[in-house]
Amino acid sequence: xxxxxxxxxxxxxxxxxxxxxxxxxxxxxxxxxxxxxxxxxxxxxxxxxxxxxxxxxxxxxxxxxxxxxxxxxxxxxxxxxxxxxxxxxxxxxxxxxxxxxxxxxxxxxxxxxxxxxxxxxxxxxxxxxxxxxxxxxxxxxxxxxxxxxxxxxxxxxxxxxxxxxxxxxxxxxxxxxxxxxxxxxxxxxxxxxxxxxxxxxxxxxxxxxxxxxxxxxxxxxxxxxxxxxxxxxxxxxxxxxxxxxxxxxxxxxxx
Amino acid sequence: xxxxxxxxxxxxxxxxxxxxxxxxxxxxxxxxxxxxxxxxxxxxxxxxxxxxxxxxxxxxxxxxxxxxxxxxxxxxxxxxxxxxxxxxxxxxxxxxxxxxxxxxxxxxxxxxxxxxxxxxxxxxxxxxxxxxxxxxxxxxxxxxxxxxxxxxxxxxxxxxxxxxxxxxxxxxxxxxxxxxxxxxxxxxxxxxxxxxxxxxxxxxxxxx
Lengths: 255, 208
Description:
The complex is a heterodimer of chains A (about 260) and B (about 210). The mean pLDDT of chain A is about 85. Chain A has a two-stranded antiparallel ribbon with strand order 1-2. Chain A is flat, with a radius of gyration of 24 Å. In chain A, α2 runs antiparallel to α5 (about 100-125), α3 (about 40-60) runs parallel beside α5 (about 100-125) and α4 (about 60-85) packs antiparallel against α5. Chain A starts with 14 loop residues before the first helix and ends with a helix. Chain A has about 260 residues and is mainly alpha-helical. Chain A has 10 helices and 2 strands; from the N terminus they run ααααββαααααα. Chain B has one domain (about 10-195): Arp2/3 complex 21 kDa subunit ARPC3 (Orthogonal Bundle). Chain B is about 70% helix and about 5% strand. Chain B has helices spanning about 10-35, 35-55, 70-80, 80-95, 105-130, 135-160, 165-195, and strands at about 60, 65. Chain B has a two-stranded antiparallel ribbon. In chain B, β1 and β2 form a beta hairpin. Chain B is globular. The chains are: A mainly alpha (about 260), B mainly alpha (about 210). Chains A and B meet through α2, α4, α5, α7 and α8 of A and α1, α2, β1, α4 and α7 of B.
């Protein structure tokens, strides 16, 4: 189990890092929603290169991004094998009577490229600012306050609870517990999850009492002021322009 | 299993967001009415964090390993508020670990959240019918996984005929997950009934 260190490289300096957080979230989200509905492989590849270009501009370490892109690849790469075999269409080749189709391969490749483009954009966006800045920007973008607050508190307590869980499992392995695939191990894991829930429930009570005694009413006050500069307008105009461009049918423009 | 970005079609993603938004409005309105949101936010956040961490536990079965979903347990413990908790949990999974994707948070929350709500209803009914708690917990864990897979298959097949094969394989891959979820949920419910029964929606008067 690892800490979710999504913003480890937030202190670097690049045009993406300097981009106003509110505008960054709005334009990158727009781009992601635009890219995942691209229908042509060539345009999808173009979008993927655009995402990689933005990533390079942001100067985030490639290793940091690649490690996280892998998580998505584990989910989508199997489609490259499954879909050619299960989708009906013109035959590409056949082995032992099982045929792979052109349509299946095309559709699966499109999915893989779109997923890659989307995850690289999201990583560039989140990796280039502190996560609490992201949450503040969401609040200023008028995302419902109760959801933003829950997002913030949950994010903070994840670190505390991971520590709690790790100390529990360290204590268990010190006493010789070696998890395997049997009923006894599962019962122990069940008890650990139960203990984690009970501890967190009691912690929640204490957190709530600590918060109301400091005057918490459910309405947060933020003091961060973000300011838009000219470069923010230019950058967001370029990104939004690109997001719209990939959906303009090239044939109709040519005519 | 969470669907990634770039898989689903526009109508499916839009429907997912609309259903999730509607259920969030309803459940949060209900939270506001019963007990006040200022009380629910800190408590629910800590519990969501606990379930988030519990879902990071991986259990190895043969060569592969599975992550727990625990949406059945979430439904039993948090009741209606399991829906916003699931929404926050999946949002953080998408943002922090790239499990799932940002555009599909609506759809993924719908798949696991509705199953959590069903599991809550099953637990309440089962308790009145005097089913023993560990068995009832295991039943809820299994049912929540089954409903998640059914919704996942519906979502995939609605996107396109091309996904019928993928949906079948995904359903097959969930059989071991369902068994593990059932066993773990059963043990957790038994533990909670012994240690902290007020966390379960059980009232001795309900039992005949």
